[in-house]
């Protein structure tokens, strides 16, 4: 079945399920009762969240609508606008509300100063008192903390601080005697929250074209992370360095892209002659980097800002006479990367240097470009004013740390601001951030033109899974048990036995690439031809070429692939809007990885996502941290004690893992699963056999092997007989049939 390239997975599912129910086809059963529309609407792939926020209370709802109402009264046009905003529909073609088009049609690139009458807000009327700010921030579970040493906070000139900070200043003499609790309280901030997206223009005066592009996305309510961070990054006081910990799928991308783009629009106005990379966005995988570029392209349209995906072979930072790429006209297709890589050196020298304003990259690719594959010292990026680290905890984890810190240090402008974003962040990352900021400034020997803070904003509970998905932790005893469980999910006619109904599209995570490959080949023929057969299931991992990876991502997004078997390559950041769930075929290496993997579903507040985690005997020592995450997530969700999937007895019974074993597990995963022997020949019989991904028992395999051996021996005999000229044409014995 072919769908237009613009179609998304949800459209496909809607249209697919009209004429053929994918779920039913997968069951190979015609007896299955049609899934009720009530169940259907609970599926994230068909549903949409009327409000993408995860945490709110009636008190803040009332306060916010009172504040929003007050603003509406100020200009009739604004009121019409808001009433005209269509229902939130992530899968529509994102038609802009008519009123908003007229309002902004005259907008030209970067006409920041042109703010229409109804846009202008009286700041006095708008600003909230501290009680209101506290109420709103607390009900959305947003916590903002100044991370600097107390002395540093107190040494800051009063003019740049709000009244809250003035109070701290007066406490200066008492500082040494402050208790830990008091120090914590002194660091706590209650900045003004963003009440609606219109304020971006009216109050924070962002570029009108950018505001228009945001409006085109059709979002009506800011998520918590947007509500908390956008005022901090767009407000009048000096832009801070910012650490953000906010749930998966909560819209962090928009939160960091809007301020980055707006800053560049302003920069173009004040420094029309300065061209080059002004902002860097670093992400751990190519898939995520490419997704950020796609999101960015929607936001930069018509602003004069260019955003580019870093590619192998691309030259950065040296602009001697090279042509400038028209970055926004390019597709971010993987095959282009390969093209660049495969070009001979002579041709490569002609590859234009990127003069894009925003470069989105994985760490290694940029480090290689800046150091000629580590053969020279790192070149600097002197113009970069904003460095965004998406999935910062993994970027600063030992795997990428050296490369990320090299990039950070290569950004040599004294006014650099950093943003570190993730759904999980250990305190070691916070310490590393603090020390790197200090070291970098010392190395530079220059001071930033104005003092600024390092703030941390946390939404919800740090390092927890989103509360809007159902977690199923399933004991499968053995590898065979896991495979049987998974097959039940694929053939949900049998689902009554396990009470889990997971409809495609969904992701399946394994621990290693060979296991993903093995699982894919095991399952590939489970999908009936009427449902599209083996083309509906694919495997994605980092051993595939960039082109293959992009193609699979595209087909999954388009709905041509329904089930994607993958590794932790896709655990973080990637946003498949309407996937119904996630299967952890192999348990994740850490609680943080669990949070990220399961966060591929339930995005933007959607209900109905399911996260199934199978565990075996070998996994028992490692399951407690996952069970704890589920427990906390269920507590955040509220509801009856009996509804909880993790019972107290289980938590008590599961063993705790020592610090060293945790480290070991994080680095290597479950040891027995590290090598997946794919053939009997490779199988040394020492442990790996039990970990094999196959439904066949050892006995069956041995029989099969014997049979194969007999066939081979028979062929050899025949060949030998033919060679000696005495084979009978009658073929009285043809060996065993396969
Ligand atoms: N205010 C909003 N209202 C509704 N949907 C939104 C809003 N902001 C962003 N979204 C959508 O939410 C989805 C998730 O956003 P995004 O990918 O930025 O999440 P994230 O916080 O970066 O998640 P992760 O931690 O997994 O990387 C996207 O499809 C995005 O378009």
TrEMBL record:
Main location, first listed in the record: nucleus
Q: Does the keyword Ion transport apply?
A: no
Q: Where is this region: Disordered?
A: 34-130, 148-185, 318-350, 660-738
User: Which Gene3D superfamilies does the protein's record reference?
Assistant: P-loop containing nucleotide triphosphate hydrolases (3.40.50.300)
Q: Which InterPro entries match?
A: DDX52/Rok1_DEADc, DEAD/DEAH_box_helicase_dom, DEAD_box_RNA_helicase, Helicase_ATP-bd, Helicase_C-like, P-loop_NTPase
Composition bias of kind Basic and acidic residues appears in 171-181, 678-687, 698-707
- Is Nucleotide-binding found in the keyword set? yes
What range(s) does the Helicase ATP-binding domain occupy? 233-443
**Compositionally biased spans, kind Low complexity:** 98-109, 710-726
CC per GO annotation: cytosol; nucleolus
Query: Could you tell me which PROSITE patterns the record lists for this protein?
Result: HELICASE_ATP_BIND_1, HELICASE_CTER
Q: Where in the cell is it found?
A: Nucleus, Nucleolus
EC number annotated for this UniProt entry: 3.6.4.13
Catalytic reactions on record: ATP + H2O = ADP + phosphate + H(+)
**One of the GO BP terms on file:** maturation of SSU-rRNA
The UniProt record lists the Helicase C-terminal domain at 485-654
Q: Where is the composition biased (Acidic residues)?
A: 320-341
Q: Which UniProt keywords apply?
A: ATP-binding, Helicase, Hydrolase, Nucleotide-binding, Ribosome biogenesis, RNA-binding
According to its UniProt entry, the function of this protein is described as: ATP-dependent RNA helicase involved in 40S ribosomal subunit biogenesis. Required for the processing and cleavage of 35S pre-rRNA at sites A0, A1, and A2, leading to mature 18S rRNA.
Q: Which family does it belong to?
A: Belongs to the DEAD box helicase family. DDX52/ROK1 subfamily.
**Subunit details for this protein?**
Interacts with the U3 snoRNA and is associated with the 90S and 40S pre-ribosomes.
For this entry, the protein name equals ATP-dependent RNA helicase ROK1
Q: Please report the organism this UniProt entry assigns to the protein.
A: Penicillium nalgiovense
């Amino acid at each position: 079945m072919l769908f237009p390239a613009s179609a998304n997975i949800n459209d496909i599912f809607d249209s697919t399920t009209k004429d053929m129910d994918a779920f039913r086809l997968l069951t190979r059963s015609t007896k299955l009762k049609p899934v009720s529309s009530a169940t259907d609407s609970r599926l994230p792939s068909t549903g949409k969240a009327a409000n993408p926020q995860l945490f709110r209370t009636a008190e803040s709802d009332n306060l916010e609508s009172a504040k929003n109402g007050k603003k509406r009264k100020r200009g009739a046009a604004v009121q019409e606008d808001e009433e005209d905003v269509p229902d939130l529909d992530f899968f529509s073609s994102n038609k802009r509300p008519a009123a908003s088009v007229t309002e902004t049609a005259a907008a030209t690139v970067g006409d920041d100063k042109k703010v229409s009458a109804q846009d202008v807000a009286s700041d006095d009327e708008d600003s909230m008192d501290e009680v209101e700010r506290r109420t709103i921030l607390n009900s959305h579970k947003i916590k903002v903390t100044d991370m600097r040493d107390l002395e540093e906070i107190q040494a800051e000139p009063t003019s740049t601080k709000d009244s809250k900070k003035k109070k701290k200043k007066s406490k200066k003499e008492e500082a040494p005697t402050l208790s830990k609790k008091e120090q914590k309280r002194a660091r706590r901030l209650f900045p003004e929250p963003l009440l609606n997206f219109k304020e971006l223009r009216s109050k924070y005066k962002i570029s009108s074209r950018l505001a228009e592009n945001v409006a085109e996305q059709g979002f009506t309510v800011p998520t918590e992370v947007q509500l908390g961070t956008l005022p901090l990054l767009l407000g009048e006081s000096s832009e801070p360095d910012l650490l953000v910990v906010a749930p998966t799928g909560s819209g962090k991308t928009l939160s960091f892209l809007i301020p980055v783009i707006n800053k560049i629009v302003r920069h173009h106005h004040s420094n029309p002659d300065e061209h080059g990379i002004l902002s860097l966005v670093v992400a751990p995988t190519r898939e995520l980097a490419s997704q950020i570029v796609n999101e960015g392209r929607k936001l930069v349209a018509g602003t004069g800002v260019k955003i580019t995906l870093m590619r192998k072979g691309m030259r950065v930072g040296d602009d001697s006479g090279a042509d400038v790429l028209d970055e926004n006209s390019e597709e971010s297709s993987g095959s282009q990367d390969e093209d660049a890589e495969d070009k001979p050196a002579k041709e490569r020298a002609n590859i234009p240097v990127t003069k894009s304003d925003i470069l989105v990259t994985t760490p290694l690719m940029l480090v290689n470009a800046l150091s000629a594959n580590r053969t020279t010292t790192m070149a600097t990026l002197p113009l970069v004013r904003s460095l965004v680290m998406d999935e910062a905890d993994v970027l600063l984890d030992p795997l990428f740390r050296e490369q990320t810190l090299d990039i950070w240090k290569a950004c040599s402008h004294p006014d650099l601001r950093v943003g570190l974003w993730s759904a999980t962040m250990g305190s070691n990352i916070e310490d590393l951030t603090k020390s790197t900021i200090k070291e970098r400034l010392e190395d530079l020997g220059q001071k930033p033109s104005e003092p600024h803070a390092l703030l941390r904003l946390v939404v919800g509970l740090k390092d927890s899974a989103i509360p809007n998905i159902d977690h199923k932790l399933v004991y499968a005893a053995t590898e065979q048990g896991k495979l049987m469980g998974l097959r039940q999910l694929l053939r949900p006619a049998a689902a009554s036995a396990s009470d889990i109904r997971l409809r495609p599209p969904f992701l399946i995570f394994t621990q290693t690439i060979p296991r993903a490959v093995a699982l894919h080949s095991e399952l590939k023929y489970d999908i009936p031809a009427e449902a599209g057969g083996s083309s509906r299931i694919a495997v994605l991992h980092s051993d595939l070429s960039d082109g293959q990876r992009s193609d699979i991502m595209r087909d999954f997004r388009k709905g041509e692939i329904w089930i994607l078997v993958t590794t932790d390559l896709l655990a973080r950041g990637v946003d498949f809007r309407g996937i119904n769930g996630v299967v952890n075929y192999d348990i994740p290496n850490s609680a943080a990885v669990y949070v990220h993997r399961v966060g591929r579903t339930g995005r933007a507040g959607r209900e109905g996502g399911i996260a199934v985690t199978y565990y075996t005997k070998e996994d028992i020592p490692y399951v407690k941290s996952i069970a704890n995450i589920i427990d906390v997530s269920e507590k955040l969700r509220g509801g009856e004690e009996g509804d909880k999937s993790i019972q107290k007895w289980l938590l008590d019974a599961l063993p705790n893992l020592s610090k060293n074993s945790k480290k070991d597990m994080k680095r290597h995963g479950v040891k027995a699963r590290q090598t997946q022997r794919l053939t009997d020949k490779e199988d040394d019989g020492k442990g790996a056999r039990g970990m094999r991904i196959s439904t066949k028992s050892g006995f069956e395999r041995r029989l099969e092997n014997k049979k194969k051996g007999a066939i081979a021996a028979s062929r050899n005999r025949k060949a030998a007989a033919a060679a000696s000229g005495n084979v009978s044409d009658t073929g009285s014995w043809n060996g065993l049939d396969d």
